[in-house]
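Title: Prediction job returns without error message
Component: structure pipeline
Severity: low
Priority: P3
Assignee: unassigned

Description:
Job completed but the reporter wants confirmation the result is attached to the right record. Sequence as submitted:
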Amino acid sequence: MLGRLAHRGPDGSGAWHEGPVGVGHRMLHTTPESLNEHQPIIGARGELVLTADARLDNREELCSLLSAPRSVTDAELILAAYERWGERCPEHLLGDFAFVVWDGRRRALFCARDHFGVKPFYYHHRPGRLFAFASEIKALLALPDVPRRVNEIRVADYLASLFEDKEITFYQEIVRLPPAHWMLVDREGIRRHQYWALDAERQLRMKSDAEYAELFRATFTEAVRCRLRSAFPVGSMLSGGLDSSSIVCVARKLLMESGRGSLHTFSAIFPDLLECDEQEFIDAVVAGGGADAHRVRGDRLSPASDLDTMLAQQDEPFYGPNLFLHEGLYAAARATGVRAILDGLDGDTTVSHGLGYLRELAGSGRWLRLIREVRGLSRQLKVPPGRILVAKVVKPILRSVARRARVCPADLVAPEFARCVGLVDRLRALDPARRPPPRTEREDHHRTISMGLVPLVLEIADHAAGARRLEPRYPFFDRRLVELCLAFPGDQKLDRGWTRIVLRRAMQGALPRTVQWRAGKADLSPNFLRGLLDGAARPAVERLLADGARVGPYVDLNAVRTAYQRARSPGSESRWAALTVWKVLTLNRWLEVESLSPAHQEVAYGEAPARSGTAPRARASAVV
């Protein structure tokens, strides 16, 4: 298992075992404290053993509470926290972590994962015989007792773009520990508990817009500051958008004030596709000084040019169509000696564009304010007001009603396969689009930040970065910042048509005005379309359309061929059609590489479970 994960930890490895229990660790030095760290860590009395992939952001508080020296490592702090608080220790931790403590006193394994799932945690459990855990699936597959069975329910979810199950993987007997959960494993089995959840009812009311902005800026600055702790040069993604630019401007100021030198920035540029290019905004940020800028030609990268490498990193088909751009940026970061890289991933979700505020205004009869916001959005987006009103207020309600009434799954999925895995029932139970639309901006915000797609994207990014010996860090997934933004009222997210207004106000004087008051962002789909349809991927796509190969029993190939034709035609549907083709291509290649055959061709299915929050398993499968 440690050999399979060597890429994650080039700075050493360690293992401990006693009787039927063993834990291992691969070391990647990132923080100053980690330079002297060796894992697994054994407690003073020899009764506790810990292995962790962790970075703690409230070290000062923990050191004070636990009477620990300031030089203590994060792993030692976690072990001390477990000794002090037991199963409640994750409630006291801030940061990104996945860890396991073997408690010899209780003959039990205690496992925990961070609030949003930044650090992955996969496990296999066969009651009475085996429990195994790892940061990546490939380590579990190294064990001869872990079966290699395709989970066809996950295949159906993937094809139907259903990502709400936070446990399921493409392997039947390998599952994920959901974010913000701990798990206790002993002879009696597994007991799990959710130790934290966002409070959808909490509201924060302040006297003025300036007070909201000041509080946001202070919290955001701290979220960036605590993620700059590194024994090596620090880097940051810089797209030219509001999120990454805000991180860069705050981070470089903090680094300069502390005398730690420049911040490395990594940007994808598209000189041959100007509709994708944001160099104007990137240059505006870099011109502020304190940044050592690195640029990667994104227009020379293809979404499928190195698909086998990305599948080897991910261990599964992955829903990350622009991962190839991140892969190029991660490679550039590694070449500079950076190990910690800041990323503005999903700042949109944390701060919220505030478009749910339109439905809130309509529902409460605040028509004058609604008209003002719609007109403002019309000016910013250059879209007729009526179109905005229909798209953001009327259509979500009609779409929800239609989807709840609809009984057939996505047209892409082969009908017989959909019936076998019970896809209709899963969509009814899990698909957020089939629920009634949120009535308020806070409800909309809470639903979005809680989606299953969030930890899935974070896991995908972790595997890609880990392959380059990098630790991605996400200021916008700081628990304190997320809780704060969710508590803000709707008028702090949307005001006079300006979305994410509290962030724009908070960055006054820090961001270049051209970035601060951007109304939108570049569309990267033309680069994706070109790379998929006319680049290195085209032969693979054409082979797929010709015979379907491994994926044939799972999909309606005529629907894939139709999507391919739409992707090649100009129009608003080309992007989504291309994503459909790419998704099927990725699944097909994974099945080829893994030599996993469609299970339902061999054995008839039983009834498939469709409950949320469980780890569903198909009754029949092929074993390799």
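Comment from assignee: result matches the submitted record. The longest strand covers residues 48-56.
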